[in-house]
Amino acid sequence: MEEKQLTFSQRHAQKFNGALIEMISMALFAYGIVCSEGKDGKIALAFFGSLALCAPISGGHINPAVTLAMWLTRQISTGTCLLYWIAQLIGAFGGGFFCYMVLGQINSPMVTDLNFHWIIADLCGEALGSFSFILMILIQCNPKTTFSDKPIASIILITLSLHLSRCYTSHSGGCLNPGMAVALELFQVLKTNEVERLDSMWVFIAGPFAGAIVAVIFFKLIYQPAFNRYYKNA
């Protein structure tokens, strides 16, 4: 209702402000990931800070797979979805570049074993981890199913969900973020000429997007109806 009352210029300003903060938050998260040296606790803290920064303005996606889920549930328009994707890619690439300039290092997710069974295992891990993570986001973003209406509680729960969901992806490194994977891998290939890293990049794209789609279907067709029936009969 409130969105319809906004003028044309206000709606577009709101979209671009959201995209800008998504880009900045993605850059900070990318910087935090590279600095974390793969340590789960540090990655969670980097995500928490980035999410707390952008959640009030953009909704706190910081992930193209999350943006896809928000589009599928009609919480954002197609234009906003595309704008956020572009901003997230630029932000992640910029964060990788800044980290390289400051620290002289860069690292990105990579499937180290290209045997068929490991490719499938890593693809399933990225999909399952993204499913778990995005399902929690959908639950928290819905006023009827949320565990808490306090913003800080939601940020903590979503951060904890990311931390735990990465357990599904111990072999692939637990990226769960197509934008981060694409941007950091492309930057590392440009700097080191390790073109072979691109052979497995599709796993970090297809897995999280598949997980997001399944999470939306599960939430809409199973979780939400079951939740409503439970509280109706309680």
Automatic annotation (TrEMBL):
Keyword Membrane appears in the UniProt entry: yes
Signal peptide from the UniProt entry: none
Single GO molecular function: water channel activity
Compartments (UniProt record): Endomembrane system
TM spans (from-to): 16-36, 43-62, 82-103, 115-139, 201-223
Keywords carried by this UniProt record: Membrane, Repeat, Transmembrane, Transmembrane helix, Transport
GO cellular component terms listed in the entry, alphabetical order: endomembrane system; membrane
Protein name: Aquaporin
